[in-house]
Amino acid sequence: xxxxxxxxxxxxxxxxxxxxxxxxxxxxxxxxxxxxxxxxxxxxxxxxxxxxxxxxxxxxxxxxxxxxxxxxxxxxxxxxxxxxxxxxxxxxxxxxxxxxxxxxxxxxxxxxxxxxxxxxxxxxxxxxxxxxxxxxxxxxxxxxxxxxxxxxxxxxxxxxxxxxxxxxxxxxxxxxxxxxxxxxxxxxxxxxxxxxxxxxxxxxxxxxxxxxxxxxxxxxxxxxxxxxxxxxxxxxxxxxxxxxxxxxxxxxxxxxxxxxxxxxxxxxxxxxxxxxxxxxxxxxxxxxxxx
Length: 291
Ligand code: MN
Fold this sequence. Notes:
The protein is mostly beta strands. The chain has two helices and 26 strands. 6% of the residues lie in helices and 52% in strands. The strands form six sheets. Strands 1-22-19-24-17-14-13 form a seven-stranded antiparallel beta sheet, with no helix packed on it. Strands 2-3-4-11-6-9-12 form a seven-stranded antiparallel beta sheet. The chain starts with 5 loop residues before the first strand and ends in a 14-residue tail after the last helix. Residues 57, 60, 62, 67, 104, 106 line the site of manganese (II) ion (MN).
């Protein structure tokens, strides 16, 4: 089987986002703008907030793509202009298709804001094909205990399957184009070769420990962009690795982005701003809370 080899290894930079939270971001950055169809990878934290310190991203719009939030530690609260609100705890995932537009807020939970606590997780932006950019917004939320998990025969490699399939497990989340989004744990001594469709572009971001991807060692905070092939080979390094394994079929369409909007040309971006400014993306209706 033809194994995919890392063609480029990008070290994530630290960046302050939203109301002031710190993320580790392999792209967009100095070296890589985006990897079609992925527009952004943010590792939020891990950060230990003291009481009153935690910040998030208050009300803001999105149009034209999807945001995937995957919580590893801590708790996030969200609410939006479609009247949807909820809470994500450790292991939970929210796959939000912004489509034509939503306005939402994403904050560490009230408990963490008031009493402090640890926050760690991911937000990944997945582009939508032009035909889906103005689709009706859609949410898919799956709690951690409902996420399918695959294991290698020796148990040294495991994968929580958010999108795609691997090690005999298949995702429950539905995506607009074929996507792989998996949280892998690879122990020292593990050695797995996993087939993925050849039309996928594959990425491996290591957020803990280190792992060998084909013939290259990839360390914490590094993203490997893999070349063509039929399979991804992961082997254990000196310490247990956590790897976010991503894959997508390149859309090969123009990308015009500005802040929270990702369209295919400038006129569509201008339209997005106008629709936002004039309230056509709605607003978050909040009822007064009794404290
Ligand atoms: Mn957002």
